[in-house]
Amino acid sequence: MSKPDKHMKKGPYEREMARRRRERKRRIRRFHLICLGVMLLAFIIVCVNIFSHKKSIRKEAVSLYEAGNYQEALDKFKEAYAEKQWFSDSINVDILLYEADCMMQLQLFSDAELTYLDIQKKYPASKYDKEQLSYLSDLSHALGNYQRGDYVSTVATFTKAVENGHKDISIYAAICYENQKSYDKMKEYLDIYANYHGIDAYVNYKYASYYYDTKDYNQALTYLAQGESAGDSDYLQEILYAEIMCYKELQNYTEAFSRATSYIAKYPEDQKGQDLYAYLDTRVNVNEVPVNDRYHLYSEPENSSAVE
After folding, report:
1. Do residues 204 and 238 make contact, with C-beta atoms less than 8 angstroms apart?
2. What angle do CA 76, 81, 83 make, to 5 degrees?
3. Which of 69, 115, 186, 293 could form a disulfide with 178 if both were Cys (CB 3.0 to 4.6 A apart)?
């Protein structure tokens, strides 16, 4: 029997089989294209999540932090943390620690405490120093209470921190003891802070506060003069006011009034200074017009510590 001529017309069966073969090839090609697309998409997702901008944003944030721009740094650290990246527990913990420290610098102590607790909840202990994080959490909690005027329950945390080598916290212990009128303990922790930090305008001011509270007004004036000469404008107003109070307590009303005159010229909006000036005016000047009528003052002159 001779072979069929390949040029002969194909019957319905042959045509159907050919159609099925073509359809199968199209499905295979379509399947291959879909697989290629899925693989490409997976590759893009992996690249996005492994090679993100997290590290570069963190680097910008660290530069801002080191420059002392804590609010800008905090915003940038938050941006870095929000950047998605796989296998990033270590860098995320690092970023959160920076965030919390920015909050501490900005005196957002409650927010810092929540951030420290967040690290403990979200990440394994192998990613951070457990003892250090516990200390920072306790400290931020105590500082939050201190900020709200709690000088009793917080002092134990501060003194423990000092005992563990955190000498920078001694100033908070000193202020707590001052508010408890435990002046010997105040001086003890003030000395620790001065040895650690050095004596600047603020430390001179706090020493003056100690000597004022213990009624050694001449020694207080010595420290106030040193604080004034340090040139730190942040504490100049408090120092100048405290000097007036010291001269008032020494009953050197002429000197006190002279300094009060300069003080209200420099700080005319300070009602406390205006009241003190009016009080001293009654000690050095004789005038038939009542003081309150001349100066429009109605509050009682303060006779308390030179330092609030």
Report:
1. no
2. 100
3. 186
Least confident of 3-12, 102-111, 257-266: 3-12
Residues 6+ apart with CB under 8 A from 107: 143, 147
For domain 200-308, the CATH class is mainly alpha
Instruction: Quickly list H helices, the chain.
Output: 12-50, 54-66, 70-82, 89-105, 109-122, 130-147, 155-163, 170-179, 183-197, 201-213, 217-229, 236-249, 253-266, 271-284, 291-295
Per-residue pLDDT reduced to its tens digit, 110-149: 999 999 999 999 999 999 999 999 999 999 999 999 999 9
- pTM of the prediction? 0.71
Distance (Å, whole) CA 89 – CA 132: 18
Give residue 3's identity as a one-letter amino acid code: K
Of 251, 252, 239, residue with least CA distance to 209 = 239
Round to whole Å and give the CA distance between 210 and 237: 18
Instruction: Give tens-digit pLDDT for 19-59.
Output: 777 788 888 888 777 776 776 665 555 544 444 689 999 99
How far out from the chain centre does Cα 77 lie? 13
Place of tokens 């420099």: 266
Domain boundaries, the chain: 200-308
Please choose, from the candidates 86, 109, 100, 155, the residue with its C-alpha nearest in 3D space to the C-alpha of residue 132: 100
